[in-house]
Here is the input.
Amino acid sequence: MKLYSSAYNVWPADDQGRLDFITGLVGFEWLGGLELGYADSLAWPAGAPSDLPAIVSGVPGTTGHNAADPDFGLASPDQGGRDRALEWARGEAAGIARLVAEGHPIRAVQLHSAPTGKASVERFTESLLEAAGWDWGGVQLWVEHCDAWLPGQEPNKGYLTLDQELAILDEVSAKAPDAGWGLVINWARSAIEGRSAATAQAHIEQAAASGWLRHVGCSSCSGEQTVFGAPWADQHLPLAGTSVAPEGTLLGAAEVAAALAAAGEVSFGLKVGLRPTDQPASVKLAAIDENAKVVLAAKG
Here is the structure.
């Protein structure tokens, strides 16, 4: 079993430190690819083999822009906010197409139904269909489900529900069948939505049954205050049973095994945050490896 690593959230900011970190990361036998984060630019990370598969996630830019611009998002009912998000996503498409042209095997891009608290099914459908007509270099277009907006509950992302996103995928695939549509479930983000590990498992089962599930991200959360922050914060907590996991982290070996069994033949990723954030690269790499081995052991 191979895993995509979303280690961009913990790699060093300085060039030499990042190079050393990535060189170590790509040495792990379990590494099957990288998840790269797109904020406003995209570059192939130095130290990564040019033929290493990758997935690009637009969540850093989506959440960053939406935090400063509450109307920003591909699902925004505000035309100005949606236009700003579309222009930003065009830059993402151009960056991905450039990497593909350079010979990097980008598998897919993850798109998100922002903004927080007011995402529109109709506007997200329109945005996805528009994006399907752009040059993405042939990569697949996946929707990553994040915690949905629920009245009376403090959201992390607060986007559309899984039911809504699955219905949208049915619609856009009928109108643009060649875009390589799919859905991504991040275990923690679904657990945060339902305040329960059971919600994450239910979402994986529902997405798999729909036929749209393409990728599952292994990332944990907690209903308790931890060194990572408030209860139910989307901070990519390490997996239960590892030496770097805080008390109360919900995703452990049993939950991983259930998720893998329910997901079926899709790809899997690992995204864990680490505290303190200024640990040496060697310590971070050991922690990531320890977490990856929980997933590998659960696969059996």
